[in-house]
Design brief:
Elements lengths: L12 H4 L23 H13 L9 H13 L10 H4 L14 H14 L6 H10 L2 E2 L6 E2 L6 H6 L2
Antiparallel strand pairs: 1-2
Helix pairs in contact: 5-6
Pfam family, one: TOR1A_C
Family: Belongs to the ClpA/ClpB family. Torsin subfamily.
GO molecular function: ATP binding; ATP hydrolysis activity; kinesin binding
Length: 158
């Protein structure tokens, strides 16, 4: 969505709006999934606030992020949903956040990748790959900069 020119997404508004049928087709049970990086900074900020308050990432609930995300992407000129009628008319049912991954999650990704390759899980390898990843904020190093995206390539060079 963040790569889409603002306003283009409103072209599908008739398919999401409250109509019985559109050109003889009912879209009432259709599921549209829009992926976007817009709002990532808001998600990260909320996750950091939870962490700094001594709360776990797993304690973050949809109700903690959804209002912030909908307003944030609506007002973000680079979101693809900027000033979109989809948000303005409440046509998007849920904003599902992808939370940043912590060190323990990166280690789980390494283990899963090793298993997928049919290799034995060596905890020394798991730790070495996880420690090569970069984390933020710089001082605290809580969340992975790239999630698990580079785990495969890092295992390739071991």
């Amino acid at each position: 969505m963040d790569k889409l020119h603002p306003g283009v997404i409103d072209a599908i508004k008739p398919f999401l709006d409250y109509y019985e049928q559109l050109e003889g087709v009912s879209y009432g049970k259709a599921v549209f999934i829009f992926l976007s990086n817009a709002g990532g900074d808001l998600i990260t900020q909320t996750a950091l606030e939870f962490w700094r308050a001594g709360r776990k990432r797993e304690d973050i609930q949809l109700k903690d992020l959804e209002p912030v995300l909908s307003v944030g992407v609506f007002n973000n000129k680079h979101s693809g949903l900027w000033r979109s009628g989809l948000i303005d008319r409440n046509l998007i049912d849920y904003f599902i956040p992808f939370l940043p991954l912590e060190y323990s999650h990166v280690k789980m990704c390494v283990r899963a990748e090793l298993r997928a390759r049919g290799a034995a899980v060596d905890e020394d390898v798991v730790t070495r790959v996880a420690e090569e990843m970069t984390f933020f904020p710089k001082d605290e190093k809580i969340y992975s900069d790239r999630g698990c995206k580079t785990v495969q390539s890092r295992l390739d060079i071991l």
